[in-house]
Each structure stands twice: as structure tokens, then as C-alpha cells.
Design a protein that fits this description.
With about 260 residues, the protein is of the alpha/beta class. It has one domain: Alpha-Beta Barrel (TIM Barrel). The protein has helices at about 5-10, 30-40, 70-80, 90-100, 110, 115-125, 140-155, 180-190, 200-205, 210-220, 245-255, and strands spanning about 20, 45-50, 85, 105, 130-135, 160-165, 165-170, 175-180, 195-200, 225-230. The longest helix has 13 residues, at about 70-80. The protein starts with a helix and ends in an 8-residue tail after the last helix. Bound molecules: phosphoenolpyruvate and manganese (II) ion (MN).
Length: about 260
């Protein structure tokens, strides 16, 4: 299995199921800090995720705290020593995240669809050794996903992880986003050295499906999980229905089985 822990954190003692977890959005210093301190109890946690600029489909909903939240992340990083991942969607966000010392960047589904934006981000990253996660584009266009990875490689980014977050469905699936498992499987045949982390939160849309999607991802030998967690999910300002508490997430982790390692 490709070592997601090593790629994203530089540590070689890879977790059994590498987990990136944290709130959909950083909402306040207290919300982020409390959630992170509780997430620390999960032994396979390798990094914390937190959205700072939120790409909402329609205007009028919470669009993230913005740059100010990077200061909260810096403080909590200092306190806990944990690595943090933040979504960037254009050049100035990428510059701000790098200035703030964010450890891992990710390109979201609404950005991977646009080669201009991916290229703009890639230009800022030219010659910089930072790990980047590339989510699949909103629609099931494998070429755009591969193209996003290639654009980063061309500017010298070596530490790249793909994220499978499902694909837009016009109401034809019980899930918020259709997993279309065949797409990440095909991605792997084209880019066998790029690990794939599954994001069951954005596939599910509902917290009740997180376990089932996580187990399906492990059964397909995916290399890790990225799951949204909030200390008070029902009060979350974005993606409330799909977030789980850190305690619930810990429980989900104990139930997951890596079948390829069974005798
Ligand atoms: C997120 O991770 O909170 C997010 C906005 O995800 P996606 O780009 O997959 O919709
Ligand atoms: Mn979200």
C-alpha cells in the first residue's frame, strides 16, 4: 500500500488506516480547538482538515472565515504539534496558506474542474515542496482529475494524494454524491503511484452512511480516509448532516476492517 502518512506528514510509521479528520469549516477558535483536542484521541489520525475558504454552490450560505482562521490554525498547531490541511482554490489563497505555514494543501472538487485555476495554483507552488491532495472533479471526468495531478507534477510537486469524494448526482442516488467506484479504480490504473484517500463525508451527505462508505473504500484497497468531524455536528455552519463527533469517529475506526490483511 502506498504510504499516505509518509507522503503527507513525512513520518514513516504509517497508520494502519491513515485518517485526515476535522470540521468541514473552521468556524471559531473554540470550535476548532475543542474538535482537534478530541480528535487527538484517535490513534490513526495523521492530520487535521479545516476549510477556511468554503466553495459554496450558491451564494448566501456560510462562505468560511477566510484568512483570519489561519491564525487559529497556527495557534492550535503550536499547541498540539499536529499537521493541518486546508483547501485552496486560487493563487492568493495558496499564497496565504503557505505564508501561514499550512502543512498540506488540497484542491477541491469545484476547482479540479477548472484547468485555469489548477494551473494558477500550480504556478504558485512551482519549486515548493508541499504535499497536495487533489479531489476528483464534481463530474465524473477522469481526464480532469488526472490532468490536475499532472499540472502539479509539471511544476515539481512530488508529494501528491488523490481524494475520491464522489460525483454529482441529479437525485439518482441515496448518497449526496454518487461514489462511482469504477472511476477511482480506473484512476489507479492510469496513476498507480498516486495513493487514493476516500472522503466518505461528501459521498454520504449523511452521517449514518459514513461507516458503510469507509468500509467499501477499504475493501477496494484505498489508501486512507478523510472524514469531517465537528464537536457539535448539528450546530455546524456547513455540511452539518454529514459530520460526526470525534467520539463517533473513533467508534467508526474501531469497526473498520482491512480485509486484505485478514488470514
Ligand atoms: C470540503 O472538503 O469541505 C469540500 C468543500 O469538499 P468538495 O470539494 O469535495 O465538495
Ligand atoms: Mn464539507
Amino acid at each position: 500500500m502506498k504510504n499516505v502518512t509518509e507522503i503527507l506528514t513525512g513520518k514513516s510509521n504509517g497508520a494502519h488506516v491513515p485518517l485526515i479528520a476535522g470540521p468541514c469549516s473552521a468556524e471559531s477558535y473554540e470550535q476548532l480547538r475543542t474538535t482537534v483536542l478530541e480528535l487527538r484521541e484517535i490513534s490513526n489520525l495523521i492530520a487535521v482538515r479545516a476549510g477556511v475558504w468554503k466553495p459554496r454552490t450558491r451564494p448566501g450560505s456560510f462562505e468560511g472565515i477566510g484568512e483570519h482562521a489561519l491564525q487559529w490554525i497556527q495557534k492550535i498547531k503550536e499547541e498540539t504539534g499536529l499537521k493541518f490541511a486546508v483547501e485552496v482554490a486560487n493563487s492568493w489563497q495558496t499564497e496565504a496558506a503557505l505564508r501561514a505555514g499550512i502543512d498540506i494543501l488540497w484542491i477541491g472538487a469545484r476547482t479540479t474542474v477548472n484547468p485555469f485555476y489548477v494551473q494558477e495554483i500550480a504556478e504558485v507552488l512551482r519549486g515548493i515542496d508541499v504535499p497536495v491532495m487533489v479531489k476528483n472533479p464534481i463530474h465524473a471526468d477522469l481526464g480532469l482529475w488526472i490532468g490536475g495531478v499532472e499540472r502539479l507534477r509539471k511544476v515539481g510537486i512530488r508529494r501528491i494524494v488523490a481524494v475520491h469524494r464522489g460525483f454529482f448526482t441529479s437525485g439518482t442516488s441515496v448518497f449526496r454524491n454518487d461514489p462511482k467506484w469504477e472511476i477511482p479504480v480506473e484512476f489507479r490504473t492510469h496513476m498507480p503511484d498516486v495513493p487514493i484517500v476516500c472522503d466518505p463525508s461528501h459521498i454520504s451527505g449523511k452521517r449514518d452512511y459514513i461507516f458503510e462508505i469507509s468500509q467499501a473504500a477499504l475493501d477496494l484497497e484505498m489508501d486512507g480516509l478523510m472524514i469531517e468531524s465537528h464537536y457539535r455536528p448539528d450546530q455546524a455552519l456547513s455540511d452539518a448532516e454529514q459530520q460526526v463527533t470525534p467520539a463517533e469517529l473513533k467508534e467508526i475506526m474501531t469497526k473498520l476492517v482491512r480485509r486484505e490483511e485478514l488470514p
